[in-house]
Amino acid sequence: MDLTLFWYLNGWAGHGAPWDGVIVFIASDLQYVLGALLVVLVFWPIHLTSPKTMSRGGRIRMFGAAFAAAIIARFVVKPLILLFVHRARPFVTLDDVRNLIGTDAGENLQSFPSGHAMFFFALAMAVYQYDKRWGCVLFAGAILMGVARVSGGVHWPSDILGGAFIGMLVGWFTVQLIPSFRRASLLRE
After folding, report:
1. Residue-range domain boundaries for the chain
2. Tell me: the pLDDT tens digits for 154-186?
3. Helices (H), 11-131
4. How far from 9 is each of 1, 17, 24, 31, 144, CA to CA, in Å?
5. Distance CA 110, CA 107 (A)
6. Distance between terminal CA atoms of the chain?
7. Of 80, 102, 109, 121, which alpha carbon lies 20 to 30 A from 54's?
8. pLDDT in tens, 66-85
């Protein structure tokens, strides 16, 4: 099933510069848009957010929790997994893969789990625990990025699903286990 879904999504690539450019943008550059969106959320005027508005300090703590979760997922948990899992990227193991996104040679054996998926799903899960609406926006961006990375030929679908699952766990645990990030004290009364 992993291979079938990979070929289906990778079949979206290689159909001309405009469409391939969209795939590359989503797979490689959407991460910067999502990061900027999170920063805007933190500093957006309070009266323009949801009815249950967090104070500015609460939004800064939300940002801290989300950033901590993403960093832990990508730079602590993923290296631990890579000690035990060595999975080559699709363009290394298969012929005729439409690889739109280059990687460093050393990253060719680092397909599972997807670091992008781990980072952005951890970020989205942490934000979701504070603000469901913004969390859903970040989840949508993370899903789009994951699909585009498979379509671009650098990940297997299971790399994205595994990274998403692990990232969401890390995001949830980070918020739950660090008392200063707890949601209850962040809402305005």
Report:
1. 2-43+54-99+107-181
2. 898 999 999 999 999 999 999 988 765 554 445
3. 17-24, 30-43, 56-72, 78-82, 90-93, 115-128
4. 12, 17, 13, 20, 12
5. 5
6. 50
7. 121
8. 999 999 999 999 999 999 98
